[in-house]
Amino acid sequence: MKRRTFKVPHFELPKLPWKGFLAGCFLIFFFLGILAANWAGQENLIQYGMLNRYYVGQLAYVQLDSGAYFIYLLKRRIRVFAMTALLVYTRFGVLMLTGVVSWYAFSLGYLFVNALVCMKFQGMVIVLLSVFPQIFCYAAAYFGLGKIVFGKKAELAMPYGISRFWRNPRLYLLISSILCIIAGIWMEAYVNPVFLQSYIRRM
Predict the structure, then answer these.
(1) What Å distances lie between residue 77 and 72, 96, 100, 134, 185, CA to CA?
(2) Which end of the chain has a smaller Cβ tally under 10 Å, C or N?
(3) How does pLDDT run along the chain (203 residues), one tens digit per residue?
(4) Residues 85-118, buried b or exposed e (16+ Cβ, 10 A)?
(5) Of residues 12, 4, 22, 62, the one with CA closest to residue 150
(6) 120 burial class (0-12, 13-18, 19+ CB within 10 angstroms)?
(7) Would you say the C-alpha torsion 134, 136, 141, 145 has a positive or negative sign?
(8) CA–centroid distance for 115 within its chain
(9) Distance, CA of 92 to CA of 134 (rounded, Å)
């Protein structure tokens, strides 16, 4: 007698695109940051928040040592980036990259509510200016790390002119991300204070 074998049907779950996954994490934690700021209460935000007219007014006439500020930002920003860049080559890369994106989103949501409570519309503009223009370089840097940890072979294709001389697309993405993060830090130290102080003086 032959035994009958029953084949269990195999179902494949749809794969969420990694860009959509990170964007979803950003939106969720941005909303959680807004909820956390509302939970803290208006009085606490006004009393303990840094975004109030007195502190912001001091920024208008501060003489900033851009070189020292660049070194300070380099030490702070490069730690998180270096740890993320190392872990994207391991099984913990997804957790680290998702955690970094989620933390930045949470902080931004919290700051938006803080600015709105303390300084209304002007506070919102200050928050936006505080991340401009370096936010584009930072996003590009972590986008490159995202392609390393999530990207398929088709997404790792390099420009034709570079691919003729460079055979390792992951190393190309890593070096590009490092250059983007350094460019972002330079912009945050030298360019961003100019925009920020210019706006505060016109308030």
Answers:
(1) 9, 15, 11, 12, 8
(2) N
(3) 545 554 545 444 345 577 788 888 999 999 999 998 888 776 666 665 566 677 777 777 778 889 999 999 999 999 999 999 999 888 888 899 999 999 999 999 988 888 888 788 888 888 888 899 999 999 999 998 988 887 654 455 555 555 554 566 788 888 999 999 999 999 999 999 998 888 888 87
(4) bebbeeeebbebbbbbbbebbbebbbbbbbbbbb
(5) 22
(6) exposed
(7) positive
(8) 19
(9) 27
Q: Please give the pLDDT value at position 199.
A: 87
Q: Which of 29, 20, 192, 194 is CA-nearest to residue 108?
A: 29
Q: Determine the Cα angle at 172 with ends 154 and 66, to 5°.
A: 130
Comparing CA positions, the residue from 108, 71, 70, 61 lying closest to residue 188 is 70
State CA 199 to chain mean position distance: 24
Q: Concatenate the DSSP letters of all residues of 69-138 into one string.
A: HHHHHHHHHHHHHHHHHHHTTSTTHHHHHHHHHHHHHHHHHHHHHHHHHHHHHHHHHHHHHHTTTHHHHH
